[in-house]
Amino acid sequence: MRARVHITLKSGVLDPQGEAIRHALGALGFDGVERVRQGKVIELELADADPEAARARVREMCEKLLANTVIENYQIEIL
Amino acid sequence: MRARVHITLKSGVLDPQGEAIRHALGALGFDGVERVRQGKVIELELADADPEAARARVREMCEKLLANTVIENYQIEIL
Amino acid sequence: MSASAATPQEPTVTQALAADHGLKPDEYQRILDLLGRTPTFTELGIFSAMWNEHCSYKSSKKWLRTLPTEGPQVICGPGENAGVVDIGDGQAVVFKMESHNHPSYIEPYQGAATGVGGILRDVFTMGARPIAAMNALSFGAPDHPKTAHLVRGVVEGIGGYGNCFGVPNIGGEVRFHRSYNGNCLVNAFAAGLAQADRIFYSAASGVGMPVVYLGAKTGRDGVGGATMASAEFDDSIEEKRPTVQVGDPFTEKRLLEACLELMASGAVISIQDMGAAGLTCSAVEMGDKGDLGVRLDLEKVPCREEGMTAYEMMLSESQERMLMVLRPEKEAEARAIFEKWDLDFAVVGETIAEDRFLVMLNGEVKADLPLKALSGEAPEYDRPWVPTPPAAPLGEVPQMDPAEALTRLMGGPNGCSRRWVWEQYDHMVLADTVVRPGSDAGVVRVHGTRKGLAFAADVTPRYCVADPVEGGRQAVAEAFRNLCATGARPLAATDNLNFGNPEKPEIMGQLVGCIEGIGEACRALDMPIVSGNVSLYNETDGQAILPTPTIGAVGLLEDVARAIRMAPAAGDALVLIGE
Amino acid sequence: MKSAVIVFPGSNCDRDMAVALERATGRRPAMVWHKDAALPPGLDLVALPGGFSFGDYLRCGAIAARSPIMRAVADFAARGGHVLGVCNGFQVLIEAGLLPGALMRNAGLKFVCLDVALNVVTADSPFTRGYEAGARIVIPVAHHDGCYVAPPETLARLRDEDRIAFAYAPGDNPNGSAEDIAGILSANRRTLGMMPHPERANDPLLGGTDGAALFEGLAGALMDA
Ligand SMILES: Nc1ncnc2c1ncn2[C@@H]1O[C@H](COP(=O)(O)OP(=O)(O)O)[C@@H](O)[C@H]1O
């Protein structure tokens, strides 16, 4: 079973990397790029068989390690 | 219009981050995590109105800046 | 005895396939004569790795032999992973410089990063803890469309690797010239500190000794990369891209700590880092130097990817790996050290008495070659060369207000401050940096002593192109002066010779001239060359780079508290010394 | 004073920290491996050194913060023990929840290694008692992820409780940290995390000694204790 975790900065948290990308895109002549946010995706290959159990486990992984919930949100997809 | 770009390492390219995460999950007692790959998501807010034109532009952004096509693949979603 | 026929999925070896591996028709013929049969695919790969310019130095060897390499201070000159020089009190400095030019042009961050990783491994393979690094960089014209991207990527890659590993990067060079537009140069230097009587070499000894694989797992990284490093660039460069490797400085740092613990445990008979064509070159070198054969059982090699073939494993350039010959009675202790650092440790073969390089995969013979011939019979060329004609006298030199000329020079890309570069490098980690970047040479204290070591990297390619002999001399003299200017006594040097295509007599003439000048100056100044690296075929579409023989020099300060910095106080007298 | 330095795989200022502590206290600190579950008995101070623990992969300090030894460090801190985290050590303390906020990629996105001027904001802590409040000192930084961020209420609390130990001097903020924050204290003032490296400014030969007062002050405080 595969799971995909999207980790994004909470809105309101400054994202210098996203800002830098926006700026660089502008310099390359791509206009109309109004906002850029950069996040992480973590793809996990799991031994679990049951999708609901897998989701619960991945949630725990996010809380314990994968995301810093002070500044980040996460979203889990079971594939 | 919003676009989301997923950037992942090409298969076969070493992913030290993913490996470190896998290891750390194991140390925290999450077993059965067979493989971890870490990638990036970039979310763009675009002024474009036409989804197909937007997709073409984002593809160009990926080729020119967002992805390091030597070692990374990318995938575009128009939301 | 003979190698098994190629398995169905392996391509049949032909002269054309050999040519794809960078082997010239006469070189392929040499292989056929040596073996008395057609090589297997794996064997062809092994030959291509061993006989390319990068490993065999086939164009430069003849000339490198003319360099002075000895002196009372020299413990080990060229031929090992790095040079070793005595610094008194039972201590030694171990250093070398190496290029990672082609990979850095293809993928600047990872190319430069893995270049730093490679040179650090060369140093700690010999039992030395790295204490300083430098980098000498040459880029194309500042306004060339690729330059900014390359500069940013290379500097970040060097910083990314070295900062994480934890070695202070205390000096170097950055230059811009259009001849590097399609072929930047990334020369990385590293130096380490060891006990003079605890240096580790690559020569294996003893029959039936376990050959052990250490470090990170093997993937398909850079398969064919060693061949790439010696091939001239052309428009097919895009297709060569996937041969890039990704560096993992965190693994390298653990490998350093594990190797130093291992060496202290007395378990190591010989050790060799896996660089280009890792498993091939390292195994052959250990056998060759020790007059032994080597047998490898590839199914025991820790792999990152599934279904890797013998060919791929033998040519993989995966980083952060080492090969070691182990004292068998120490196996458990050695394995425990690697487990502590969460690194792979696998016995993958053994030393054998015959002169034979036997590579097996699941009981099947994949390569069975005379081992000594792989390096001993490697082609060596006396390539035709022509001396560089004297440069035409300079035309009218424009007259200019000196103050304005000075501002122009200092504001130009080749004269301006390099702070933007070195601020991205941790130049203070280890808390022994006495003279930081921005002076003539960087100086670090020898930890726990009053001694200091000074490091400088220099060359002026426009002198070398005008007059290679003089340019070679000047590079050495400048490095020497930069050391002296800190108060250090120069000890020895390493050279990184970057040139174009040696098959062109005028390029060969530059190489010959520069080596002559370097040799002369080193002899005159008593500063032997103890290690080095040659990078040829630095050309794009037939345009060669300026001849760039970078000199990395090392000096000793008996009392580091007396190191001289470039920080004069108001009221100090200004004195001009020399002619 | 008895101290320990925690060694994570990828720590690279562990020796530097040990040298600074030994110089100030005359006693060599214990070096404690991250996989250990317990600290040596009788400690007065635990130091988390700089470096790239676990390669700084995922997030700086994140994996180290979940090491077995960190549970013992948290217990030690909860019992009133003194904890110092420098650079990567600060990142670990934050990830372990022993200090509030987060440390993000530098605003300039680049690694920065240079001397910066700091203001000592409070002298009221065992770490800063060797300085005058308001003193201007120079200490090097070397990091890629030192931009301190926290919700407004947290920043307000840090200010109100006088828990900002060091702030970058105006114009000298190398990473975009909120309110120029360079180092903060825990509520009981016995845990300090800071991005600048005082252990690199502890020897005249290395270009500065402004970090020495931190180690000496600490040694003094813990000796008196
Ligand atoms: N790539 C680099 N990395 C680190 N330091 C560098 C680099 N390039 C130049 N420097 C430093 O900048 C200073 C000026 O460099 P350079 O103009 O080449 O000096 P010099 O002519 O005295 O050798 C030197 O201290 C040098 O070590």
TrEMBL record, chains A, B:
GO biological process annotation, one example: 'de novo' IMP biosynthetic process
InterPro entries per UniProt: PurS, PurS-like_sf
Localisation per UniProt entry: Cytoplasm
Top-level lineage group: Bacteria
EC number(s) on file: 6.3.5.3
Any coiled-coil regions, as ranges: none
GO molecular-function terms, A-Z: ATP binding; phosphoribosylformylglycinamidine synthase activity
Primary location class: cytoplasm
Catalytic reaction list: N(2)-formyl-N(1)-(5-phospho-beta-D-ribosyl)glycinamide + L-glutamine + ATP + H2O = 2-formamido-N(1)-(5-O-phospho-beta-D-ribosyl)acetamidine + L-glutamate + ADP + phosphate + H(+)
Annotated keywords: ATP-binding, Cytoplasm, Ligase, Nucleotide-binding, Purine biosynthesis
Subunit structure: Part of the FGAM synthase complex composed of 1 PurL, 1 PurQ and 2 PurS subunits.
Similarity-based family: Belongs to the PurS family.
NCBIfam families membership: phosphoribosylformylglycinamidine synthase subunit PurS (TIGR00302), PRK05974.1 (NF004630)
Protein name: Phosphoribosylformylglycinamidine synthase subunit PurS
Organism: Oceanicella actignis
UniProtKB/TrEMBL annotation, chain D:
InterPro entries: Class_I_gatase-like, PRibForGlyAmidine_synth_PurQ
Record field: catalytic activity: N(2)-formyl-N(1)-(5-phospho-beta-D-ribosyl)glycinamide + L-glutamine + ATP + H2O = 2-formamido-N(1)-(5-O-phospho-beta-D-ribosyl)acetamidine + L-glutamate + ADP + phosphate + H(+); L-glutamine + H2O = L-glutamate + NH4(+)
SUPFAM superfamilies hit by this protein: Class I glutamine amidotransferase-like
Protein function: Part of the phosphoribosylformylglycinamidine synthase complex involved in the purines biosynthetic pathway. Catalyzes the ATP-dependent conversion of formylglycinamide ribonucleotide (FGAR) and glutamine to yield formylglycinamidine ribonucleotide (FGAM) and glutamate. The FGAM synthase complex is composed of three subunits. PurQ produces an ammonia molecule by converting glutamine to glutamate. PurL transfers the ammonia molecule to FGAR to form FGAM in an ATP-dependent manner.
Record keywords, A-Z: ATP-binding, Cytoplasm, Glutamine amidotransferase, Hydrolase, Ligase, Nucleotide-binding, Purine biosynthesis
EC number per UniProt: 6.3.5.3, 3.5.1.2
HAMAP family: PurQ (MF_00421)
Positions of the catalytic residues: C87, H197, E199
Functional pathway: Purine metabolism; IMP biosynthesis via de novo pathway; 5-amino-1-(5-phospho-D-ribosyl)imidazole from N(2)-formyl-N(1)-(5-phospho-D-ribosyl)glycinamide: step 1/2
Species assigned in the record: Oceanicella actignis
CC annotations in GO: cytoplasm
Protein name according to UniProt: Phosphoribosylformylglycinamidine synthase subunit PurQ
CDD domains, A to Z: GATase1_FGAR_AT
Membrane spanning residue stretches: none
Pfam families: GATase_5 (PF13507)
MF terms in GO: ATP binding; glutaminase activity; phosphoribosylformylglycinamidine synthase activity
Biological-process GO terms, alphabetical: 'de novo' IMP biosynthetic process
Compartments it resides in: Cytoplasm
Assembly information from the UniProt record: Part of the FGAM synthase complex composed of 1 PurL, 1 PurQ and 2 PurS subunits.
